């Protein structure tokens, strides 16, 4: 890989840090609702979770913004530099999709980090009549960020990125390539589940991705440090 060594090391550190923060975002977010994952699928329960939960959710989504998205931008650029020797045109297409995925994902996380805790805090002190409107506002924000940005647009762009780079990476490192390809498959399942409102399918894709993505990021960071992706 003809890439500046300092950039490779920085990318590796970012990738490992990203994986750790992504996993931390899960722990922090779930801690706010006593590790009851189902609360996140019920907007009425989530908005009524209280200010302590809101603060945990705020930090969870800031960690998610960094760990699952922004800190992976150098990795996307490094992989492009490496994979353009395999197929320049497709490497450009997949990398563009990856950058769209990362930017949309970070945007959605930033929206949720700012709005969900605010609405949760407002709900806690609101009157009964006002709470009905807050629930509607909460559902609208959820539809825009979770179902729209995160659920369809981001996942579709991410599926193209992971499937594409996974395929190209197979010629360089079979294990890393297959791992990325598997993440892409689950992103497809998540996207299809959201488009056709098949909750079981979207939940399967989401669960697999939030667990596999950080692990892949950490592993590829370790491989970069050790020089196993030369």
Question: Could you explain the architecture of this structure?
Answer:
This protein is elongated. The protein has one domain. The protein is mostly helical and 230 residues long. 83% of the residues lie in helices and 0% in strands. It has helices spanning 5-31, 43-47, 51-67, 73-83, 88-125, 128-169, 174-195, 199-226.
List keywords for this structure.
230 residues, mainly alpha, 8 helices, 83% helix, 0% strand, DUF4386
First-residue to last-residue Cα separation: 5 Å
Over all CA atoms, what is the radius of gyration? Answer: 19 Å
Number of strands: 0
Domain module count: 1
Low confidence ranges? none
How would you classify the quaternary structure? single chain
> What class would the helix/strand composition place it in?
mainly alpha
DSSP helical segment count: 8
Largest sheet: none
Assign a percent range to the helix content.
over 70%
Furnish the topology, listing elements before pairings:
Blueprint: H1 5-31, H2 43-47, H3 51-67, H4 73-83, H5 88-125, H6 128-169, H7 174-195, H8 199-226
Helix pairs in contact: 1-3, 1-8, 3-5, 4-5, 5-6, 6-7, 7-8
Pfam families: DUF4386
Organism: Thalassotalea psychrophila
Protein name: DUF4386 family protein
Quick summary of this structure?
With 230 residues, the chain is mostly helical. It has helices at 5-31, 43-47, 51-67, 73-83, 88-125, 128-169, 174-195, 199-226.
